[in-house]
Amino acid sequence: MPEPSPQASPVDLAHLPRHVAVIMDGNGRWAKARGLPRLAGHRAGTKSLRRLIESCIEIGIPYLTIYAFSTENWKRPVHEVRGLMFLLEEVIQRQLDELDANGVRIRHVGWLDQVPKHLQHAIASAIQRTAANRRLTLSVAFNYGARAEIVRAVRDIVLAQTPASEIDEACIERHLQTAGLPDPDLVIRTSGEMRLSNFLLWQAAYAEFYCTETLWPDFDRADLVAALRSYAVRERRFGVLPPAEGGGSAGRPADPSLRDASYG
Ligand code: FPP
Fold first, then answer.
1. H or E segment at 63?
2. What's the Cα-to-Cα distance from 179 to each of 8, 130, 169, 200, 221, rounded to whole Å?
3. What pLDDT score does 235 carry?
4. Domain that holds residue 65
5. 216 lines ligand 1 (CB under 6 A)
6. Residue 104's pLDDT is what?
7. Does residue 157 sit within a domain?
8. Per-residue pLDDT of the chain (264 residues; tens, 9 = 90+)
9. CATH code of the domain covering residue 121
10. Per-position b or e across 102-122, b if 16+ CB within 10 A of its CB
11. How high is the pLDDT of residue 255?
């Protein structure tokens, strides 16, 4: 795996997102267009995922979160659900050595109680084995839904008998599945769809959104670079006016109450 290289990366390295989150969509359409079963699309999607991880390492993006299986995906046909479980386990088995050698730390976002025991163990051992790695934190959202995440966070806060005066944004963030991760700066969705679909609703409050017509199995380094270039030229305001128009700091205001003062 090459070191991050400015020469090899035609992106604005001064304005790279620290955290990229990806809604990998379009596997079914990719397969249908080829007369293949939907699972063939998901399998092809694992190859794009591998390319994405390699590109993030090479370009120097330290946090990547992928939406691999939503709480709503249980409603899909049982063989597709089983196939997605199988694919995740296969990815872990086949790619864990390489991911570990390349400094990838694996995290899981979501709930594992409903997934098969052998997959639970595979995920837990991948997390444990890569815990000390810091080059890229890969968070796999698997059996994840943002509304359920917020509901559980609120329940935990109530169960801990937290005084109302201590419930603020930081308190809620500590109870989310993503505790300890920076918020995503850029959310990418493939296949022309323009929805968050219950993905990181809290965390993506100020994320830039990039949508491409490319179906997930076709998503490659050039697509990622296009998303990063689009991100690099955007002005992130976090609800505050630019200094030339009388606004304050260009960064995210330290005082959380300011973040709600206007929309941006
Ligand atoms: C959405 O495409 C994609 C998913 C529900 C699963 C994403 C999975 C992968 C990219 C493969 C890697 C898998 C794991 C588990 C690591 P869709 O099926 O909704 O596509 P469609 O909208 O064209 O039907």
1. strand 63-70
2. 33, 18, 12, 12, 29
3. 80
4. 17-147+181-263
5. yes
6. 98
7. no
8. 555 554 455 788 889 999 999 999 999 999 999 999 999 999 999 999 999 999 999 999 999 999 999 999 999 999 999 999 999 999 999 999 999 999 999 999 999 999 999 999 999 999 999 999 999 999 999 999 999 999 999 999 999 999 999 999 999 999 999 999 999 999 999 999 999 999 999 999 999 999 999 999 999 999 999 999 999 998 877 778 777 777 655 445 444 444 443 445
9. 3.40.1180.10
10. bebbbbbbbbeeebeeebeeb
11. 43
Query: How far, in Å, CA of 93 to CA of 113, rounded?
Result: 20
Residues 6+ apart with CB under 8 A from 233: 12, 15
Residue 236: predicted pLDDT: 74
Residue 82 domain flag? yes
Quick one: which atom of ligand 1 is closest to the CA of 45? 10
Sequence-separated (6 or more) residues with CB below 8 Å from residue 149: 176, 177, 202
24 lines ligand 1 (CB under 6 A): yes
Beta-sheet strands, E only, within 110-190: 136-144, 186-189
Say whether 21 sits in a helix, a strand or coil: strand
**How many structural domains does the chain have?**
1
Residue 135 class from Cβ within 10 Å (0-12 exposed, 13-18 middle, 19+ buried)? middle
Which of 29, 42, 75, 198 is the pocket-test mutation for ligand 1 (most atoms within 8 Å of CB)?
42
Active-site residue identified among 73, 102, 133, 198: 73
Cα(165)–Cα(12) distance, integer angstroms = 42
Residue 248 resides in a domain: yes
d(CA 128, CA 120): 12
25 Cα–ligand 1 center, Å: 6
198 is a catalytic site residue? no
